[in-house]
Amino acid sequence: MRKYRFIAIVLLVSLGLAACDELNDLLSDDPRDAFVGDWSVKEENTLKSTDYYNVTIRKSETDTSLVIIENFYQLSYSAEIEAKVTGSNITIASQTLTAAGSDFKIQGYGSMPFNGKTIGWSYTVDHLNGFIDQVTATFTKED
Prior knowledge:
With 143 residues, the chain is an alpha+beta fold. The chain has one helix and eight strands; from the N terminus they run H-E-E-E-E-E-E-E-E.
């Protein structure tokens, strides 16, 4: 009986520590911590169809309020976009990226619920050739 009680205690402590890591990211002094990582994207847009792809979000090394998003709008991992994190919100100020020989003007915002596992997005991608894409997306954090 003691053996089972010991195993149960070890299991509960392990689960508690894993949950603490996620909670610590959400309660961190640096709100960017909750956004950092690899994300799966489901994107609904007006110019294309539903797209599925991955992005990586990392902290800016030069500004403590910014994150860098790689592969945003599936443009490429070398086309990086900056976004400002304020609490559980993330904002992309209007900026132009060049990818695959084309320019794209992007702006929008997202919000993360307390669970820290998803970001709901709404953004505009101006292809600078007369086509403007209105996009909603959900980023889901990969474990």
